[in-house]
Design brief:
Elements (H helix, E strand, L loop, with lengths): L13 H4 L3 H14 L7 H22 L1 H9 L3 H15 L4 H10 L3 H16 L4 H14 L10 H11 L9 H11 L11 H18 L10 H12 L6
């Protein structure tokens, strides 16, 4: 994918400036330990980027804005939900429990309709980013749930990440919080998704992009690269 403009929130406030730059350098060196050529590293492209990029391309093929609108107009809510769940499952970005909870939530006609209409509104609807995000969170909270709750940070952010990696970031709390700690960024956190927390997450992404842009091989194409960088810092499989 071609590199596009992203990170819609300005780098402002204490969160954008209060960074321990020794931590930033340490995080970059850790990434280079696994992927010496940064975001251009062939192993990185296969191990971290390819399945996320493939999910986006599948989404563009099946649920681009115009196709999404046509399916909504025909009342194909279950089709939309099935496509979204299938694309995520192939990329395996959610945990097994989160995926099962989401599948259960969209099985009923009412659940599929709520999911499909509010997902479109979140991705392509009118109004401010804050309003669209809050409406999406409210819809996820209202979806039917059996054993596991549907409204988690990964579920709230995964479809924006797949559909619009130029604007949205997947938030995996444990790995991302560890990445912020190692980086020296005081990321706020609450297990309940909210707009202020998401804004702070995007500010952290902006700080990381700003710092990495200065280094050859580390110019992030989109949020896929930034999320992958954070994942390498905090995920168990990358523990040295």
């Amino acid at each position: 994918m071609a590199r596009t403009a992203f990170l819609p929130f300005p780098l402002a406030g204490a969160g954008a400036t209060n960074v321990i730059y020794l931590g930033a350098a340490h995080c970059r060196r850790k990434f280079e330990l696994f992927y010496p050529d940064g975001f251009e590293d062939e192993t990185y492209l296969v191990a971290e980027r390819s399945h996320k990029e493939r999910a986006h391309l599948e989404w563009e093929t099946e649920l681009a804005a115009a196709d999404f609108r046509k399916l909504l107009a025909r009342g194909e809510f279950r089709v939309i939900a099935d496509i979204a769940v299938r694309i995520e499952a192939r990329a395996s970005l959610l945990s097994t429990f989160e995926r099962m909870a989401l599948r259960d939530a969209v099985k009923s006609p009412a659940g599929a309709r709520l999911f499909a209409t509010e997902l479109y509104g979140f991705l392509h609807g009118p109004g401010s980013a804050q309003r669209r995000f809050n409406d999406w969170l409210e819809a996820l909270a209202d979806l039917p749930q059996r054993q596991s709750r549907v409204l988690t940070w990964p579920v709230a952010t995964v479809f924006g990440f797949i559909a619009r990696p130029d604007r949205h970031l997947l938030f995996k709390p444990r790995a991302t919080r560890r990445a912020a700690h190692l980086y020296g960024y005081a990321l706020s956190y609450d297990a309940k998704p909210s707009w202020p927390m998401y804004q702070d997450l995007m500010t952290f992404a902006g700080v990381v992009r700003r710092d990495l842009d200065r280094k050859p091989g580390f110019k992030a194409r989109d949020m896929i690269d930034l999320q992958s960088f954070m994942w390498v810092q905090g995920a168990p499989e990358y523990e040295a």
